[in-house]
């Protein structure tokens, strides 16, 4: 189980018929990326790319675009290339005024996860073949994404070192250059500065989007880009955010997960009839109110809590979570996530998924304190891995014998001095143009939705920035966009966010 959780923390995926399934094939190849192979040895080239032209349909409109796929160096202080980051840069090709065209810079999480997830399942112009709820289908493949944001913004998907095809240039380069909260932010800010310069996008309104650990990354980048690259953003989008280094404390840690438990129990029809008969978003406010106003103060009292009050609180937790009052009492009013995933459907012979609790798993035995495996991640890897490997080679025409790392080794990761929530607050305070939007799935147990709301409250204790912060919830999990309805809604929310965060002509950045 520890190994599985470690892999999840490294999270923020065709056959001969693929060309027919994948939409319009490349019309023109302007450059070809080749490996410099000597016998059977692969030699990594940190600076190469291939350019292909495509057309897609977004919201009923034909959109021509250019895709640049390849590697661009990370340079050290002496101008030496110490790594090459693999990226895909999508530009709408019929745009005349590139200066006013927004640029979205996209990261996934992990911290050792590739950008595959949002690239071919969320905002990019191509979409992997899955059913309307996100489950795998065969034959594997890629099709057009009719909900992509490429109609309103160009997008670059960036892969940190050891993810996808990104690599250090030498084994002699210290891992500490890349693998840590602040090291990660520093070298990625340098890379972004170089990319924006190389692609002549300094005039463009700029946005960062990150998923899961990617939210830690982009929150820190917002300030790092301002302070060290002198690059000011219009927006940061946090998809399924982490705690962003914001301290919880024992009581808050125990209390804040209950609304997620309630959402999951509602989905699996494990709540009492009066709650089950309500719609999800009509039921959750009652649970949220109890969590903040009763459960949190009760957990703060610990062993001094009156026994009768303890039983009353346990009864309410049981009512909202679908877990028996006896189990709640046995866990001192604080049922661990892992136990919840095992316990909720134990009598039905199933576990529920961590990253998306709509998914069910089957364990070797019903007894135990946690699931044998994470049902949702196995399902996602099933559909994403073939699709991304085929898409890059067949559609984007990038040929390489290097392995595409869905999850790459980034251990040991230095977690110290994570102040990324405060970094984002500082960036917003210093830049009146900067807006933040959070997107969360109600069924995400890794970065649960109520903790993401708590982030916003604690990040801005004065309330002076709240008019530039927004929160959106979706009826799916960590990757809310895997559900077709949420894919459409979430992309539309990004379009609206971009539109609303672009200043009017002549509108100054001042308070």
From TrEMBL:
<dbReference type="Pfam" id="PF00450">
    <property type="entry name" value="Peptidase_S10"/>
</dbReference>
<keyword id="KW-0121">Carboxypeptidase</keyword>
<keyword id="KW-0378">Hydrolase</keyword>
<protein>
    <submittedName>
        <fullName>Carboxypeptidase C (Cathepsin A)</fullName>
    </submittedName>
</protein>
<keyword id="KW-0645">Protease</keyword>
<keyword id="KW-0325">Glycoprotein</keyword>
<dbReference type="GO" id="GO:0004185">
    <property type="term" value="F:serine-type carboxypeptidase activity"/>
</dbReference>
<feature type="signal peptide">
    <location>
        <begin position="1"/>
        <end position="19"/>
    </location>
</feature>
<dbReference type="GO" id="GO:0006508">
    <property type="term" value="P:proteolysis"/>
</dbReference>
<keyword id="KW-0732">Signal</keyword>
<dbReference type="InterPro" id="IPR001563">
    <property type="entry name" value="Peptidase_S10"/>
</dbReference>
<dbReference type="InterPro" id="IPR029058">
    <property type="entry name" value="AB_hydrolase_fold"/>
</dbReference>
